[in-house]
Amino acid sequence: MRGSVHLLDPQVAAAFYGRFESLREAQQAAIEPILAGRNVILSSGTGSGKTEAVMAPLMNRLWRDAVKTDALVLLYIAPTKALVNDLEKRLYRPLYALGLRAGIRHGDRDDLASGKRVHVLVTTPESFDVMLFRKDAALGSLRAVVIDEVHLLYNTQRGLQLSILLQRLRDRLGKPFQWAALSATIGDLSDVHGFLAGSDESPVFLSFPSHRPIDAHIRHVATETQFLDLVRKLTSGRPTKLLVFANSRRECERLAGTLQQDTALRHSVFAHYSSLSSEVRLETERKFADSDNAICLATSTLELGIDIGDIDAVLLWGVPGCVESFLQRIGRGNRRAHKTNAVCLIPDTCKSVGWDALCFASLVDAASKGELPRRCPYELYGAVAQQMLSIIASDGGRFTRVADLCKLVRHKVYLDRPTVESILAQLAANGYLQAHGFKNQYGADEMLHELVDFRMIYGNYGSGSQTVDLYHGAKCLGEIPATNLLRIHRGSVVRFNGKCWRVQKASRDKILLEPVRSGDAIDFTYAGARARIDAFVANRVWQLLHAEGFPESLFALSLRSTVLEARARLRSVCTFNQIPYVRSVDGFQYFTFAGYLVNKAVGLISGNKSFKASDASVLVPSPIDWGMIPSEPQAYESVFPSLFEMSSEQSLYQALLPPELQLREYLEDWLKDQAVTDVLRRLVSSSPVAINSGCIGFFASAD
Questions:
Q1: d(Cα 577, Cα 544) in Å, to the nearest integer?
Q2: Residue 298 — left, alpha, or beta (φ > 0 → left; ψ -120 to 50 → alpha)?
Q3: Rounded to whole angstroms, how far apart are CA atoms 151 and 366?
């Protein structure tokens, strides 16, 4: 091996890289700045060895002291328990070679509590919160932190929570610690730094885009039988492993049921999604990884780099809502080759085949060119409320000075004292805190003690719905929304984890199930709205329709001629700088290709009292004067309150914010997405043109 690897201690180099003939570019680049004590944000392609890239030089700095003190020196934070489990297995061998031990801390396992001496602890943001809440002594010896898959935390409540937790850790240690953040799909690394660390000293940015050629194929699957036939074809004649991503748990179950109609496939079908218990998910991951022939139906739970073995092809059942998710999903496929195989499937339930076909094509085009949306760091507040409560509760609920609470968010310029005080006052109004009689302090009130008792103080997940556990004997299979109790009864046959079960007993406490071979199964329903296509993807669809060199080879023959004919009809009546519209008895439907949020804002600002917005169009009762539509997002301030939409994705703590901060949070998607500005400027500079519905109908998105 050549390059910077010679800077590593030979024992460390052998432990992490001994079985490699050479280091990847990202691994070489990370060694020198990390050995120099610099903080690093590293972006590199999926499967490029980012974990080793930062862990090798970090352990080079820390391992001798770790062995000498036998103390925890590094915290490795990952977004999910499944990834935590996988990382611990991955780090075991190189750390063991250095005389070090890795451990896990999350809701299902706590190696620190077991009495083990751990030098590297892999955990989640929520479990890190628990450790700070309980003032865990093990944190006192920490010298470094690694944050993995940081793009999943960027501009989220969990990311803000982690940002404040890192500040709490700095104050706890009384000195800086070294940190590194890793991502495979991210736009601007300086934005990540701004969101995560605020105004802290600038880190070293290391970006190594990896653009493996994408061998993509887009086709419409008109029936479940066609899906079954496709899987049969892909798995015929040789050992094959397929990973099928769906956008909902219900679709995972439906597809699993379809595949199990084939006796040859039945025992090779797995399901993986968030409602399954951790035990069942781990069992699925192990069995799928060990199988030569297997098909796994999954939601976003397998987007991350969990080790499930080599995948021959990734099938996408339905369009992901953004480029980042698309890249994560296709990045799981065929790592042994220098290209990615992606089969993009338009489901049988799709109401607009043309729209989905073009969305898939735009995602492939953007991914192939390495183009990602640019969203500046969001100014969020919900996790601030959660952290204020966590800090006060961790101190026994005693009164805490407002100045001390403000100090913990000092790295976020927008979180000034008046803003923090407004959050604290609202928490007091809701019964979670109480203001001191004459000092500028807040202490715990009754509702905060309940949050602690119910262990709801640590997380910033969406509130969602209440759930009920599913059991087979003493084994917990997972959980489902409790509203499903209204649809089932004793004797009902239901589908879960890709299998059929008969309900033995159903109550609010739990549902008891027994396996059955088959039956007319009921699919459980789950909370969550249909994923909207964002402005970036919608805008690229319009660009693709008018681009030279249209990627017609992406489409299956059965779909290609229809797409090309529809595109030719549209181009014959409309140019890129025009907005096609159709007039009907319902009004004027403008096909903006702007995304739902932009279309809703246009409907509101146009003054129409009633309108209907979708991903591709806005329907209004009277014509829109496009020359009067503002081209800058901030100019829509008069309709900001009407843009706000409550969602099941909103966390408990977001709902506890003052109303004006809830609105400001919601508007970050509008104000900080560069694609929104790009689309508005395109629309304002375009002129409307009336067309026949037949020229656009094939590409119109479903409502």
A1: 13
A2: beta
A3: 17
Beta bridge partners of 584: 587
Q: What is the pLDDT of residue 465?
A: 46
At residue 31, the pLDDT reads 97
User: Could you give the strand order of the β-sheet that contains 313-317, starting from the edge strand earlier in sequence?
Assistant: 214-220, 340-346, 313-317, 241-246, 294-298, 269-272
Give the span between the Cα atoms of 405 and 480, in whole angstroms: 38
Separation CA 186–CA 194 (nearest Å): 13
Q: How is residue 529 written in tokens?
A: 């709205």
Which residues pair with residue 316 across a beta bridge? 245, 344
SS (H, E, C) 197-232: HCCCCCCEEEEECCCCCEEEEEEECCCHHHHHHHHH
Amino acid occupying residue 582: V
Please, what are the averages of pLDDT over each run of 10 residues along the chain (703 residues)?
Answer: 79 89 90 97 86 97 96 95 89 96 92 90 96 96 96 93 97 96 84 86 86 86 95 90 91 91 89 85 87 89 68 91 83 62 92 94 90 92 98 97 96 96 98 93 95 84 69 90 81 90 89 87 74 90 94 94 95 96 95 95 92 95 94 96 77 92 94 96 97 88 61
Q: What is the pLDDT of residue 531?
A: 66
pTM across the whole model: 0.88
Sort 494 into a burial class: Cβ within 10 Å, 0-12 / 13-18 / 19+: buried
- What residue spans of 341-408 are helical by DSSP H? 353-369, 382-394, 402-407
Give the residue among 275, 600, 691, 190 at the shortest CA–CA distance from 464. Answer: 275
Contacts of 362 (CB under 8 A, 6+ apart): 537, 540, 541, 543, 544
* Contacts of 327 by beta carbon, 8 Å cutoff, 6+ apart: 46, 184, 185, 367
Q: What is the CATH number of domain 3-208?
A: 3.40.50.300
Residue 242 to residue 269: CA distance in whole angstroms: 10
Q: What is the model's pLDDT at position 324?
A: 82
| Phi-psi region at 396: left, alpha or beta (left = phi > 0; alpha = psi -120 to 50) | left
According to DSSP, the β-strands at 109-110 and 617-620 are unpaired
Domain ranges of the chain: 3-208, 214-350, 467-523, 556-699
What is the strand order of the sheet 612-613 is part of?
612-613, 617-620, 587-591, 578-584, 687-690
Distances (CA, A) of 260 to 254, 263, 472: 10, 7, 20
Residues in a beta bridge with 496: 499
Q: Are 361 and 551 in contact (CB under 8 A)?
A: yes
According to DSSP, the residues that pair with 104 across neighbouring strands are 122
Rounded to the nearest 10 degrees, the angle between the axes of helix 674-684 and helix 535-546 is 50
* E strand map for 420-564: 433-435, 441-444, 467-472, 475-481, 493-496, 499-506, 510-515, 522-523
* Fold exhibited by the domain 214-350: Rossmann fold (3.40.50)
599 touches 636 (CB < 8 A): no
Nearest to 621 by CA among 581, 578, 681: 581
Cβ proximity of 72 and 121 under 8 Å: yes
Which residues have a Cβ under 8 Å from the Cβ of 220 and sit 6 or more positions away?
Answer: 345, 346, 350, 353, 357, 556, 558, 559
